[in-house]
Design brief:
Number of strands: 0
CATH topology: Helix Hairpins
Largest sheet: none
Helix content: over 70%
Radius of gyration: 16 Å
């Protein structure tokens, strides 16, 4: 895929498509149709795996675990009806702000 950012849009569409499948046929459907706590636990596990890979893993391990985390994040977003575009808009809003300024604005 030439436009690497478009991969998130493609994955979002795949998640939406698989959400319509039977939980017996699709891992995504199983995550979305199951209890939300299981999905949230999965996100926690994936985030922890990224942390562990970053702490002592190889470059390839960090990449692999980060891809898992991004995929599962897309599933969480789908569960809550949040489009990837909304995340892009929020990131765009923050562009040009220092992290300290952005954080201070949230505290107000």
């Amino acid at each position: 895929m030439d436009n690497k950012a478009a991969i998130l849009d493609v994955l979002e569409a795949v998640v939406a498509e698989r959400a319509q499948a039977s939980a017996d046929e699709s891992y995504v459907a199983k995550l979305l149709q199951g209890h939300e706590d299981k999905l949230l636990k999965k996100i926690g596990e994936e985030a922890t795996e990224v942390v562990l890979a970053a702490k002592g893993g190889t470059h390839d391990e960090i990449v692999y675990e980060s891809a898992d985390l991004l995929f599962h994040l897309l599933v969480v977003l789908a569960r809550h009806g949040i489009a990837v575009e909304e995340i892009f808009v929020e990131l765009g809003r923050r562009f040009g702000l220092s992290g300290l300024t952005e954080k201070a604005q949230r505290s107000e």
